[in-house]
């Protein structure tokens, strides 16, 4: 099996697994980090180191990092928490049709609570322009939520310009950076956004842990979604999973240290894959076009084939048709439809997402399998035969 679905999840790095194992058993740092005895203090020290590691990876201060169960919870806490806290200022928010489902569904929840949502659609079929955001904000706009890297196409948004727009208007700006951390530079000491979501399992860390950056100066505020012991400055109650956050901290440190070299390597493999596919197959479309994209994602639509048949015809290739959170459904990708693809092309799309384990041999074999499958399915299609 060739695994090219790293945007869905990555294997835990061996170094990360080793650090996590040290925090699980009786001969390690297993205690509750909120306890005030010796073992608890040792666990709290591990948590502190992990918080410093995540903060250091994104140019934040450690107290600005709030632990969560992952980017989905971080996105919900960021959107719902900020919207409800600042509701007295207004009830309008701006987001995009191409966001992750955890943002879209949170925005729809706010709509059910009486909020108005402006849903931006990329005008050029690729990404939201800062000018679109500037035109969409109103006097009663409280919150803007836009992702840094699209999870299906890999397109990078200009969050620095967008942050300048929201800061000038006094609007809370939340960014989903689940696919950005470890792939492109993030320096929150320089970008004036307020909230940013992260996930560990997208960069060699464990599933089940993430973080929300909550700026302290100027201070951003969120209402908690969970209640209990008042952990995480009162924003996220619950016993901190020492092994999970220790794993996330180290994974962030390693990914950011290798980021420049690794993204260059992966971009070369990605471009080689696209060259092989586009030279061998007519009528295929690169989703995201020539826009700035992270090095590890390539999304391609194949005309003349049925999407389900294409995926079935690639039993030795682990790729996705879109977001893993939505791939269990039968609907074509809502992201690709928002970018202008029709239902057939959106359904007949593959997202190739590369990772540390990806090799040139993997890319060559994957290209050959896809080329053979598309040619085979097109040969069976009367419609394609007439078009050709």
List the helices and strands and how they pair.
Elements: E1 2-3, H1 14-21, H2 38-58, E2 65-68, H3 71-85, E3 92-96, H4 101-112, E4 116-120, H5 130-136, E5 141-145, H6 159-169, E6 172-176, E7 195-199, E8 210-214, H7 242-280, E9 284-287, E10 297-302, H8 307-312, E11 317-318, H9 334-338, H10 343-347, E12 349-353, H11 360-379, H12 382-387
Parallel strand pairs: 1-11, 3-4, 3-5, 5-6, 6-7
Antiparallel strand pairs: 2-8, 7-8, 9-10, 10-12
Helix pairs in contact: 1-7, 2-7, 3-4, 7-11
Please summarize what this structure is.
This protein has 388 residues and is α/β, with parallel strands linked by helices.
**Sequence of secondary-structure elements:** EHHEHEHEHEHEEEHEEHEHHEHH
Question: Judging from the principal axes of the Cα atoms, what is the shape?
Answer: globular
The total strand number stands at: 12
| Overall pLDDT | 94
* Structural class by helix and strand composition: alpha/beta
Strand content: 5-15%
Low-confidence blocks of residues:
none
Radius of gyration: 22 Å
**Helical residue percent?**
25-40%
Secondary structure tally, helices: 12
How widely separated are the two ends? Answer: 33 Å
The main pleated sheet reads as: 7 strands, mixed
Strand order of the largest sheet: 2-8-7-6-5-3-4
